[in-house]
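debug: dumping io for the single-chain case to check the tokenizer round-trip. Nothing else runs in this session.
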Amino acid sequence: MRLRTPLGACLALLLAAPAARAQVGLSGVVRTPEGMAVPQLVLVVEGPGGPHAALTGPDGAFRVGGLAPGRYTLRVDTPGFRLSPAPEVDVAGAGIRLALTLSPAPVREHVLVTATRGEAALSTVGVNATVIDGERLAEREASTLASLLQEVPGVAVARAGGIGLQASLFIRGGDSNAVRVLVDGIPVNEPGGEYNFGPEIPLELERVEVVRGAASSLYGTDALAGVVHLITRQATDGAAAVHGEAEGGRFDTFRAEAGASGRAGRFQWTAGGLRLQTENQEPNSAFRQNAAAASGGFQGERTAARVVLRGDDTAVGTPGQTAFGRPDLDASFERKAAVAAAHVRHGAGPVAHHLRAGYARMDWVSLNPLDSGAYTPRWRDRVASFDFFDVPDPAGFQHDTARVSAGYQIEAQKGAHLLTGGVDVERETGALGSRSQPLLTPRRTNAGVYVQDRVVVGSRLFATLGARLERNASFGTTAVPRAAIALRARGGDAPLTLRASAGAGVKEPSFFESFGVSFYAQGNPGLRPERSRTFDLGVEQRLFADRLRAEATAFHHEYRDQIAYHVVDPATFQGSWTNLGRTRGRGLELSAEATPARALRLAAQYTLLAGEVLESGDAFANPVYATGRSLLRRPRHQATFSARWRAGRVAFGADLVIVGRRGDSDFLGLGLEGNEGYRRLDARARLRLSRALEAVVVGENVFDRRYQEVLGYPALGRSVRVGLRYRSDPNP
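debug: decoded output
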């Protein structure tokens, strides 16, 4: 390939230079303020003889050789990052080793791990991703994780009522089971892809990464539409710190959280706990949760190890679709969740090894001990044509699943290439069904091998190519590829980056779909995997010395071989599962971030989704699933606008969420096939009372809008919480 830029030519000459010429030079390591290495970062050294360039390796290390004696200035050629002030060094007769720290621009560039299974600057990976960092997590004061995820472009959230009740997440028109969910690198989806975001409360999180687009080339099953990765906080400095907060408010809400962190030499640790309780708004919807998270790690010269433990114990009432009839006053949902992760990384220079082991368990029980009687659903002037009856189950319905996973990964830098290869093994088990009958106890073992090449061409073209061979106990062996490019079309003070990516995804059947023994829902061991093909094309522009970043992305996702229930014998209603459905999601994502002043941050995003059922898989011909209809609970239009301002002791923030009309169904015979749009304003204020103590006021749904994210389940009205927060380190 012909190199057209002086910097690209310098990079090629450097990579081809024989070691004998590298007698005098610079070496060192580049990291973020949080200590993250940034591989494939272009470092430019300017001085006698013109510019020289080098790429950082897997551990952030670099080396520039063959330098003439003299004075040199260093800088990074990546938007959103700076070496500030730009270091200047004198190179004489001996090599110099530096430890460089990246300084974020006013609109910072993020380093993420989910897009490539290794640290990477977001602007270089080619795929669409969003990072909700620790600063935003703390400032947003969100009552649930679902509220935070709703402000990510391309993401829609549907919650069945108040805090803690069932919440589903959809990325770019994919189903709620089409997203791979990771906690500290450990997959936590239930077998088949389902994940309930309702009980997820932000606790001791460092950041949340959301990748949009199929990612099965790296993560295997479930990553049809994207990946959501929750990453636990680590201590970043040597000072021991403690924090605690308590707040209370409307709906008898009370929340208390406390934690501590510290570092001693090469060891670091964090720990935190949470107690949350609220009555919510509807009868029998009270939510209670106890949760804890802890991490500990060791950082040596070549070896790093880390262990993370997270868990929660949750109980919430489930009154049903109270907008359409009487509440069920005795039904409830109980969940116990646990995640354990262990990571060991070893390497220096161009090669790094990573071992991973994890355990994730999700044990939930639905209880309905009493018969609440029959009722006729009603909505305004609509009345259902038949009554509905409660179906009590005094023993409860159990869904206890666990996943044990392990993996090995190697990264190696060779010239402009950063090669990654690895193997994953997962063992899934379950104990499912009504506890009044023998439980279904399926077992499934899956394995996958993957390879990936990240290459820099001419210092401005970043390409990522990868593929995975997945062996699943239910559907057999399949291959899934992915390719992405990022081209820095213009540098300088107004860098312009073009991006494109294409990928394939697969998803395994659920345990019931593969192994079910019920006469009315017989499992089908011959099911094929659900598949996706995703494409996107985008552009990012930075202006005004990195004070404004604007981004636009067009996407096209197609989901095939979707598994649906099918009646085998209409006379007896005997049923099974088969690959029937096909849907499509295509549209446009727009986003912008701006820091017009140091104290003010603004952000906005808009998503246009044209979601459509291409082939219906509905066994009962529900019109909402008919061919040509829009996708269930995924709005065509959605937007959020955010503002943050801080000066001195006072800080304010506000978020406006606008969700358009979307397809839905009452599923009760009322004939409702759509759900009205809504607007919700959340706001908060903080006042620093002393160096370590803050007063906080948070309002959600400030204007008390009446709406339903899911038909039949009224969303919370105006909620106001007031609290105090103590931090021994006011800038954690």
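debug: round-trip ok. The longest strand covers residues 574-597.
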